[in-house]
Specification:
This protein has four helices and four strands, in the order E-H-E-H-H-E-E-H. It has 139 residues and is an alpha/beta fold.
C-alpha cells in the first residue's frame, strides 16, 4: 500500500504507446520522487509511438527505453488516482479510487507535427494535476 504522503497515479489508454506514455513521462519529470507514476494499456502495442518519442525528445524527455505495459488489476488497486485516456470500459473500477477521464486526441498513426499539440495539452494537465495534489512542479 502506498504512503499517503506520496500519491500514486496510473495513466491508462488502449495501447500505452502515446498519451499515457507522455503523461507518465511528464509526471515523472515534474513530480520527481514526490509522486509514484505508472502507465498501462488495455491492449498494449508492441512499441511506443515513434512520433511520441520524438515529440518528447524535443522538450528534453527521453522515453526511447520505455515499452507498453499491460493494464493489471494490481496496478489499479495500488494507485490513488487513475486517469483514463480513451480506454473505455476496459479499465477496472474500484471504490475509493479517484478516476479522471482526459479527452485527448489519439496520436496513433500521426506525425510529430500532430503530436506536439497533444504533448503540450498533456503537460498542462499534468501541471494542473500536481497543483491539485499539492505538489509543486519541478522547474
Amino acid at each position: 500500500m502506498s504512503s499517503p504522503a506520496v500519491p500514486s497515479v496510473l495513466f491508462v489508454c488502449v495501447h500505452n504507446a502515446g498519451r499515457s506514455q507522455m503523461a507518465a513521462a511528464f509526471l515523472t519529470r515534474l513530480g520527481g520522487d514526490r509522486v509514484e507514476v505508472r502507465s498501462a494499456g488495455s491492449a498494449p502495442a508492441d512499441t511506443v509511438n515513434p512520433a511520441v518519442v520524438e515529440a518528447l525528445n524535443e522538450v528534453g524527455i527521453d522515453i526511447s527505453a520505455e515499452a507498453p505495459k499491460v493494464l493489471t488489476v494490481e496496478a489499479v488497486q495500488a494507485s490513488d488516482v487513475v486517469i483514463t485516456m480513451g480506454c473505455g470500459d476496459a479499465c477496472p473500477y474500484f471504490p475509493g479510487k479517484r478516476y479522471l477521464d482526459w479527452k485527448l486526441e489519439d496520436p496513433a498513426g500521426q506525425g510529430v507535427e500532430a503530436v506536439r499539440p497533444i504533448r503540450d495539452q498533456i503537460e498542462q494537465r499534468i501541471r494542473g494535476l500536481l497543483a491539485e495534489l499539492g505538489i509543486e512542479a519541478a522547474a
